[in-house]
Amino acid sequence: MAQDTKANWTQDTLASLSLKNGMHKAVAQGHPWVYRTQIESVTGDPSPGDVANVLDFRGRYLGTGFYNPHSMISVRILTQTHETIAADLITARIRSALAFRRPFRRPDTDSYRLVFGEADRLPGLIVDQFARTLVVQILSLGMERYLDAICETLITEVQPERLILQHEESIRSKEGLPLYRRVYAGQDQTQETILENGLRLTIDLASGQKTGYFLDQKANHAYLRPFVQGKRVLDCFTYIGGFALNALAGGAAAVTAVDVSAAAMDLTVHNARQNGFSDRLTPIVANAFDFLREQARAKASYDVIVLDPPAFAKSHSAQAGAARGYKEINLSAFKMLESGGILATHSCSFHMPEALFLETVLSAARDARRTVRILDIRRQDFDHPVLGGYPESHYLKSVWLQVI
Question: What is the fold, at CATH topology level, of the domain defined by 87-192?
Fold first, then answer.
């Protein structure tokens, strides 16, 4: 979508959306979304992608954001202080996001999430840096109007070799946006080799998960290393080997890596080879649920087990089913850990709250008749910040336990 000439907004030209009585509290406390079901009335004639004011049921100002009546999230709040919505604001927010991350960069890592959507006050915008490549995802109709300003700012500030628009996420269809992948600047390439915690990892830019790799687990990958010296490690849902490779770097005697994707496992094997770890890696292409069940039934034994599955609960209604799934894989893991064994278990589902996830894991330990020590409860890395008033920005739970 080309840059929209109407994408500079002043308060006196904006339409207004009034919320139903009792529906204003979350927005007033900083939540950046207004759902279609919260809206009582619309004053003016805003088009999809326009900017509109949000008022409470008494007509008091709550914020201003991108409006899209075709989306369940009808407004994505940009400001609560009457700032003018224009390309300059988007540019300033991007520069602020880059500045926030700069002091926390690590010399052994060259890849980070540079913009984390609403948590960086840039709703619907994701930007990931993979070494010399930037991958941009725009997931809201209003933000798409600033595509050129976004890309040109990133090129100026980061100076990448290439910038790729990865616009194939299905949520774009719900926003009324087309699905496509396009190179905005530089020459395309389907793979990139990044540096993470001193390891070289080759990732798939063309057909990999999300933007190509999950950058939220970087610190947790490194956290694994002190637990694995001389140990037998099982890494389930390994994707391209993030935890497996860090276990090998930490001195694990042997690592079994399991993933259902043959393409992902090929990259895991390649990554082990390019870091000199091939002799201690056993790659297995299998459904991790089935593998864990069969290994537990066969009374297999590991010293350290990592579970990092995809999101089981993508909506609140899926929470109960997700809890059963998490309990099943953790129960199998506990059955294979003896005294002193370590379990690092994860949930990336916002709809699986931390307290419920922890109780689910502890319930699995009880059913397996294991007494456990909770070593740590962690979350996503610093470049995926958590915004106050926006609980959805805290989605990754990382629970570390020891069987005692």
Answer: Transcription Regulator spoIIAA (3.30.750)
